[in-house]
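Sequence, structure tokens reproduced for absentees:
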Amino acid sequence: SKQISHLEDERQRVAANKKDLASSHDFASNKHKNEKNQLIDLKNKIEKQTVELSKIKIQREKVQQQLTQKREETIAQSHRLQSLKELAAHHAHSTEAVKFLLSAVNKFEGTSFQTQGILADLIEVDPTHEVVVEEFLKQELEYLLVDSASIAHDGIKILQENSAGRATFLIQSQNQDKEGFDEIERIVQQLTQNDPRLIPVSGVVRLSSENEYKLRAVLPQFFHSVIAPSYEIAINISQTYPQLTILTPQGEVIRNHIISGGGTTSSGHLSLKREIRDLDREVGLTQKELRSLEQ
């Protein structure tokens, strides 16, 4: 009886141990399963982060390339702009006489010569008609701006004493007659209103109202000119209105029986000014893009 009781107790202990082992096994199995799932999740996260990191590296390399390109572009544009400004400062497209006088301000003793620059400094032209106007006003654009005839004479004496050539001076009187259009300007206005193919030269040139009044008195041809779309049309208009100056897109200048033409200048005062303006704007935009990339 005692042996049977002992065996029963032993059986119950074994059953309890078996139950505990089964429970431990289930716990360990579940834990292993959870850890395996966590490991899979972690692996997926690592793979996802690796892909994201690769994308970030590619994007960073792309930005670095863009940054390098923009820096090189900015440097190149800045150097070009500086070169153009130096050309403008030294009036590279001016005659030797004009250059000499522009550099002579406050340089020679016993003279009060002063100039505000040249006529080209006062005007801007629509890029489309830049070459046409440049050819038409080639000599006039070189006129030196002075305040009086005596100052112009000082400039002439400097040129004579230094055998530096000839120059033309434009006296900027403050008392110009401010009358409206003259009869020829009315013809220009009527022509361009009736035929939209014709463009008044004064319409493609930007001037302050003050400078327009000044030029109206001293350079009337500036306001007595139109741009025709072709040489044939220009000739026909000139025959009908010989008092007008007719320009063509190819650079011919026609006035009555006088016709000039030939090769055109690739660059001049007006194109240089426009190139400086355009490039200055481009440099500003490039620098803005560069700052955005650096951030």
Observations:
- The CA atoms of residues 10 and 130 lie 114 Å apart.
- The chain has a mean pLDDT of 83.
- Residues 2-89 form the longest helix (88 residues).
- The longest strand covers residues 144-146.
